[in-house]
Amino acid sequence: MNVEMAGGSEGANQNHMATNGQIDTDLYSRQIGAFGFETMGKLIKMKILISGLRGLGIETAKNLVLAGPNTVTIHDDSLVEMRDLGSNFYLSEEDVGKKSRAQACLMKLAELNTYVSVNIHTGPITPDLLKNFNVCIFSETSRRSLIEYNNFCRSQSPPIGFIAADCFGLAASVFVDFGDQFTCHDKDGEEPKSAIINGITQDNPGSVTLHSERPLPFQDGDYVTFSEVRGMTEVNDLPPQQIKTTGKYTFTFGDTSKFQPYEREGIVTQAKVPVTLKFKSYETCCAKPLADGEEMLMVPDLAKFGRSEQLHFATQACLHYMDKHGRLPPVRDASAVSDCMEIATRLNEEAQKDGDGTVTVEKIDEMVLKAVVSYASCQISPMVAFIGGVVAQEAVKYTGKFGPLRQWLYVDAFECLGKEEATDTASTNSRYDDQIAIFGQVFQQKLANMKIFLVGAGALGCEFLKNFALMGVCCGGKGKLTVTDMDRIEVSNLNRQFLFRKEHVGKPKSKTAAAAAEEMNKELKVESSEVRVGPDTEDTFNDAFWDSLDCTVNALDNIQARLYVDQRCVWYLKPLLESGTLGTKANVQVVLPHMTQSYGDSQDPPEESIPLCTLKHFPHQIEHTIEWSRDAFQGLFQDGPQEVLTFLKDPQAYLAKLSTEGSPALQRERLVKIKTLLTTIKTGATMQACVDRAVKVFQDFFHDQIAQLIHTFPLDHTTSEGQPFWSGPKRPPTPISFDASDDTHLDFVMSCANLFAFNMGVPECRDRNALRDMARNVKVEPFRPKEMKIKTSDTDTTVEGSSDDEMVIQKLSAELSAIDEAFKKSISLNPSEFEKDDDTNFHIDFITACANLRARNYKITEADRHKCKMIAGKIIPAIATTTAMVTGMVSLELFKVVNRAERKIEDFKNAFVNLALPLFLFSEPLPPIKTVDKDHDPIIMGPVKARPYGFTPWDKVHISISNGTLRDLIDYLARHHQVSVMILSVGNACLYNAYLPTHRNRLDKQIVRLWEEISRSTLPPGRTYVAVEASCADSNDQTDVIIPTIKFQFTD
User: 462 an active-site residue?
Assistant: First the structure.
């Protein structure tokens, strides 16, 4: 085996550390959120071969190196061609004709991840080579060779994972074979769901009723386990049981007729049951492509029902052609198209004679076959990015995580082609030749001269910049790509934001990513910015800027920013390409003026919030205790010190204001925090003092508060209906006493004490033994129960607190008022702002220990540090494969935006993809929502008229009146739209209300001056209009009338 390595001894040593289980949680934190530690442990031991390094191969290699396997070996002895630069981002013009593709890519691939050994194999692929790998991936490989390689991979024990993929212009195929007996341990990657049991019948099958806190979280065929059930304890020992759903809160399972009667309590939890999958060989699947149990090939787009079967025959025809001629069909070669039509027709006829597992079509579709064959030797960036993400994720699935493809995936984007076939497709000996061969030179020039706004330069933004550079977008004399991102690069970004390296940490994302994209294509006209996009920066991203754009591409990670950009695109009538990812899931939405709905027209339902009473007193899931611990961190280490600083500025004003804020219990809590912190400082801020306070916090959190709760609601307490109080979601807690020999107890004290030390400027201490000795000497006051009122639910109107709250508040206020002035001036405090990605600052350590101790109180299964970090930090799982895939899909839509005036809505594709399942759903965007007349509107509680009838959010009423007044606007609407104006507003400022007599004095005021007076704001420089919302009534019958937003131009 002829192998060349990259990275030297340092790379090999780092890789050795990784394979010994030292997973870099800083680097892989977002990926671990999607894969989990078990899968990461398997992944870092994997060895992968990738043969074929045009666009598809390099995209796959990039995604896998970022993912972090042990070894990635690349193979492609072909010399670099100029056209390769259109899809392989690691090639340069200097490599053309001088280096093999593999040699040219080696060093840059190795730079992506120093934990991965990246090697080259040169020469033929042999069994001796293949046996060294866990997964082998092939593209641009002959059918005859694929059969040979696949048969060898299947013959090994365990079988070597085999993936074959091709991108033929705007069509693509992926084939997966993991052997006869492959075990999938987790088919969907979702967190197991659990529910609280309300009852189980003694029956065959037994029927389970869940607590009505929320609907059944399971589906037919799921497996579940039982725990903590009282009475019918036999179910607690059962292996995973398959269920059948029977109602909103009920399901059945097994035979419970001979079990003891159910009494109370119990948790039912979804179980991940391993599934054994049987794969067929590549040779078999070429003739009989249906997997066992499947009735048809996967249908990614229901508008193209039957297309996968057509693509199968067209792709197989190309591969048969390759076997015969030694190469793929030449571009736009009529003779090759004819030959392939004969081959495809013959293959279809043979399939019609065969039996099970075959697919057939009534007739080979000439359009599909021609589109596949004509561009079979072309690889374009959007398609290879899409498929490269899919292929890399399939390789990761060899770990047993997620459901692999069964076994073929076929997709196409033929709708990208124009109505008329391009004729200006001759080679220009440029990096764009493959793209020009499909779309033509005129189209390429249109791409080059586009003006695009890319909002975000993180994971999505890096991939978009790469795609645009390869596609030639904004690379012409009139082209311009503006990219903005206010964030700086962090270590955790490096796992998926592939334009960044370790030396870039701390630098601006937008500037660094733009520079990297320019290296890929010197012709790229890119301008970077660190300005946030929002209402406060409309002087930067002003009317002239938005008016100049051809398209906006969002690469954002928060809904608020997405909505703002969407609103701007609607206002300026600009196309918007929206996308997002969540672990293995991704979505694409195409927003087109007057053609589709906007992003803001439909939103996901809000996330479920945890009821406050559940957090404070009655947690029953680890998520509840983690959220409680995050709040505890905020209160102790950020709000507490900040509260003291606010108090010290003006104690009397603070105390006066406090008396008007919140309940007495909350006032008491705030004063206690101030007094405790000031006392600690006054008596001597030392590490021992910090440990004293940490142990006392432990006593309060995990013993006294719990003991008080049990005192208020004893274990035998019943509700007003006579039912046990401690049942269902209310789990009876048990107090915990501090034990310095318990590691979790010490973790809490160590992190808590060091955070207090940071607040007070005390040097940290990481010596566990020293801290343990300090903690053992701390004396805590014995618990004394109080008479307290505690809410039992969020609908409970009880005012929480103790009977002595008022007395204690008075005492504390008096003590704090008497603080010495000199002492106040000597105090210096450092509030701790929560930072999830610094593993040395004790923040996540505190939350982990705190959450798990509270979980012990309530007998909830504890969580590892990473899970606590993900939940407390609200970290969104993210992986390179999904990111690359979704940006490929978006970039395909950009092709269509170029000539959107000639297109219909059905040419565009929204998408939802879940690579874990895998699931691909492409659909036509929805048309814009129309406002129409209604006989009864539920908000207005009466009839309404739309004027004009059927207007959409894209429509505006344009009114231009120089120095126009309110009266001018009202009169205009009365004359031209036959409406009487009731209310006029601009943003949050109400300019006119017809029901308020005093507003008549405003009628002759200029609208813009009135707005400035009311809002105390000024318009961005150069803006000559305001957006006015009007509430109107029909001038004749006074029926309420809805009209579009008014664009009121007040100066020429």
Answer: no
